[in-house]
Write a structure and sequence with these properties.
This protein is α/β, with parallel strands linked by helices. The chain is globular and about 50 Å long. It has a single domain, classed as Spore Coat Polysaccharide Biosynthesis Protein SpsA, Chain A. The protein has eight helices and ten strands. The strands form two sheets. It has an eight-stranded mixed β-sheet, with helices on both faces. A two-stranded antiparallel ribbon has the order 2-3. The longest helix has 12 residues.
Length: 228
């Protein structure tokens, strides 16, 4: 088994959630501090990642880092490493690159802090499919949104995914964008994209808006949505 790093991005501006909470007259807070299963989203996501076979877990902070630090520092696991973006006003690509440049190992599992519904089983499956692929150094295993197996398009795809760190470093360098345009460039250059079947539909939800959060809570305890 090759050694795997995990990168959790948690550096966003929280703009859409702030807008929603303000419009509803609710207390403004960071979306990653909203509770799920009686725990803040960010620590819940990190703890699930730490149940996989990763050797380190790097959480990249930016905006609102002072609010997020306390929820991470109580996680007692020597594999956890918290880093900061030097410039907080950057897109996801640079947050990911910061994580990649701080990894100790060759491969990485990349997760978004606002996807607590991604199961530990799916995280591990992303790792396994990558390492078992014919060319793991030129493959991205990614949570499928429809078609599974080898894909010829990155349409609609994003985090979570797993790949070789050198691949990310190559394609993220100099980019200041979201992930999807970068995935499209990879596919155009012949990088293999492998769609991994998820455990349930709820895994595809990013909690960007307050309604996303409510939807997750509503579906949390349904038998078909086992989220561990």
């Amino acid at each position: 088994m090759k050694n795997i790093s995990c990168i959790v991005t948690a550096a966003g501006k929280n703009r859409r959630m702030q807008e929603d909470l303000q419009s509803k007259g609710m207390e403004i807070q960071h979306k990653l501090l909203l509770k799920i299963n009686n725990e803040p989203l960010i620590s819940y996501t990190v703890k699930k990642a730490l149940k996989t076979e990763i050797k380190e877990c790097i959480v990249v902070l930016g905006h609102f880092m002072d609010e997020l630090y306390p929820e991470l520092e109580h996680i007692e696991d020597p594999r956890l490493k918290i880093i900061e973006n030097v410039d907080i006003d950057v897109e996801l690509s640079q947050t990911l690159l910061n994580g990649v440049l701080n990894t100790e190992y060759d491969y990485c599992l990349c997760l978004a802090g606002d996807q607590p519904t991604v199961t530990t089983a799916t995280m591990q499956n992303l790792i396994n499919e990558l390492l078992n692929s014919l060319e793991p150094e030129k493959t991205v295993s990614i949570l499928a949104r429809g078609k599974t197996g080898y894909l010829n398009s990155a349409k609609g795809l994003g985090m979570p995914f797993a790949c070789h760190c050198s691949l990310l470093e190559q394609y993220l360098h100099g980019e200041d964008d979201n992930l999807n345009p970068i995935l499209r460039k990879m596919v155009a250059d012949g990088v293999s994209l492998y769609g991994v079947q998820g455990q349930n539909e709820l895994e595809l939800v990013n909690i960007n808006r307050y309604d996303d959060y409510l939807s997750v809570l509503e579906n949390w305890n349904k038998k078909e949505n086992k989220l561990e």
